[in-house]
Backbone:
């Protein structure tokens, strides 16, 4: 069985604050892939990042950064200096032979 | 431009009707998935397929079936629609081995009355 847990249901911040979204996953597979997706109010799912289980290198892309730690089965996502346009639902996902999503975290950035 | 296309954006069906949701991808992907999305529950996996005529149950398969007769097409079937199947349905596809991300269709908002 595999599972993705996003414990934070909603996060509300003021613009320019940093936001960290937690993701914890469970799988018995040794080879797997992790993803983050963003779903803005328009509804489409926007791919943000993919990581495979052998690549624990953290990554920074503009205001986004990701922290992958196999030892704690976590793949956390940070938005630095948040903006109103970052308001969306963010999903963490795990792929082995199937693709499973967490319940999502709704981020609201207030001006 | 890669694409996953779902046949309908909005559907309204009556309780007890048989409902077909169609999904077509043009990327020659092996894996295809059907999810339903409900507020606070995220995307829940209904069924998936990793090859033509192959299918596996996801986490919430009850009340649904699927068909994959051709590689590019994956159909979700509600044998007898019920009001608790009112939801947003999303189709996705990926390449075997997940060398790319999953690509999603635009979603079908199904209302069962």
Residues:
């Amino acid at each position: 069985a595999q599972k993705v847990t996003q414990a934070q249901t909603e996060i509300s911040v003021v613009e320019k604050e940093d936001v960290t979204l937690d993701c914890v996953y469970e799988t018995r597979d040794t080879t797997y892939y992790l993803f983050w997706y963003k779903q803005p109010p328009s509804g489409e799912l926007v791919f943000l990042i993919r990581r495979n289980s052998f690549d624990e290198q953290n990554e920074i892309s503009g205001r986004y950064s990701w922290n992958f730690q196999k030892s704690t089965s976590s793949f956390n996502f940070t938005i630095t200096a948040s903006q109103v346009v970052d308001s969306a639902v963010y999903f963490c996902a795990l792929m082995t032979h199937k693709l499973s999503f967490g319940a999502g975290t709704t981020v609201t950035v207030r001006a | 431009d890669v694409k996953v296309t779902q046949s309908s954006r909005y559907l309204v069906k009556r309780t007890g009707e048989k409902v077909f949701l169609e999904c077509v991808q043009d990327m020659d992907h092996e894996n295809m998935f059907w999810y339903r999305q409900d507020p606070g529950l995220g995307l829940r996996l209904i069924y998936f397929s990793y090859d033509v005529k192959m299918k596996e149950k996801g986490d919430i398969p009850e009340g649904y079936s699927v068909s994959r007769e051709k590689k590019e097409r994956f159909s979700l079937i509600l044998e007898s629609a019920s009001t608790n199947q009112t939801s947003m349905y999303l189709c996705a596809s990926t390449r075997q081995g997940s060398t790319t991300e999953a690509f999603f269709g635009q979603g079908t908002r199904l209302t069962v009355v």
Notes: Chain B has one domain: 4-112. Chain B touches chain A at residues 31, 33, 35, 40-45, 48, 50, 56, 58-59, 88, 90, 92, 94, 98, 100-102, 104, 106-107 (CB under 8 Å). The radius of gyration of chain B is 13 Å.
